[in-house]
Specification:
Rossmann fold, 5-stranded parallel β-sheet, 3-stranded antiparallel β-sheet, 9 helices, 15% strand, Adenylate kinase, kinase
């Protein structure tokens, strides 16, 4: 299967992508991984992307599209893939369509993880990270530490990352609404969109996604 996963920040796309890719035996291709791999391997696209990032500028669509194309042409993606974070706008969606058409392929479905804006803010703004180990993550509502502000695992100080503040989260949501949300209508017009609720346990959301794909 060839699937695109969309949804606002905090919808749980990364978590669901990992579960779905495993269940469907297809590679999970995320924009973040593409950038990290190209930059660490010092590819031409990685060098170009890093120059923009170092300058604090957005990486142009053509570079992101090039990275995605290279990755989708790898042998492990021959029988399908799950795209997470790409396409990010309608221009990228059109480029993806053109790439697949050229290769004699097409998308099977676009999964839209739906979650209310206030819930997104609550999820992200409530996160607390351990200063000693960023893998130790808590949440003031959903997974609070036994002692306020103290990591259960190592006793380190828990803090809120700057980009997890409510103001920053709402800004990220505004960017999502402006740039990425239009691809939902784009894929809806093609009959590819499958919208599911991203609320509840991770396993429940995964099951909803699998059920939607079976249809």
């Amino acid at each position: 299967m060839r699937i695109v996963l969309v949804g606002p920040p905090g919808a749980g796309k990364g978590t669901q992508a990992a579960f779905l890719a495993k269940n469907l035996s297809i590679p999970h291709i995320s924009t973040g991984d593409l950038f990290r791999a190209n930059i660490s391997q010092n590819t031409e696209l990685g060098q170009r992307a890093k120059a923009f990032m170092d300058a604090g500028d957005l990486v142009p669509d053509e570079i992101t599209i090039g990275m995605a194309k290279d990755r989708m042409e790898q042998p492990d993606a021959a029988n399908g893939f799950l795209l997470d974070g790409f396409p990010r706008n309608v221009s990228q969606a059109e480029a993806l369509d053109a790439m697949l058409t050229d290769a004699g392929m097409k998308l099977d479905a676009v999964l839209d993880l739906e979650v209310e804006e206030d819930e997104v803010v609550k999820r992200i703004a409530g996160r607390r990270i351990c200063r000693n180990d960023s893998a130790h993550v808590f949440h003031v509502s959903y997974a609070p530490p036994k002692t306020d502000g103290v990591c259960d695992t190592c006793g380190g100080e828990l803090y809120q990352r700057g980009d997890d503040s409510e103001g920053t989260v709402r800004n990220r949501l505004e960017v999502y609404h402006t740039q990425t949300e239009p691809i939902i209508d784009y894929y809806k017009a093609q009959g590819l969109l499958r919208t599911i609720s991203a609320l509840g346990d991770v396993q429940d959301v995964t099951q909803r996604a699998m059920d939607a794909l079976k249809k």
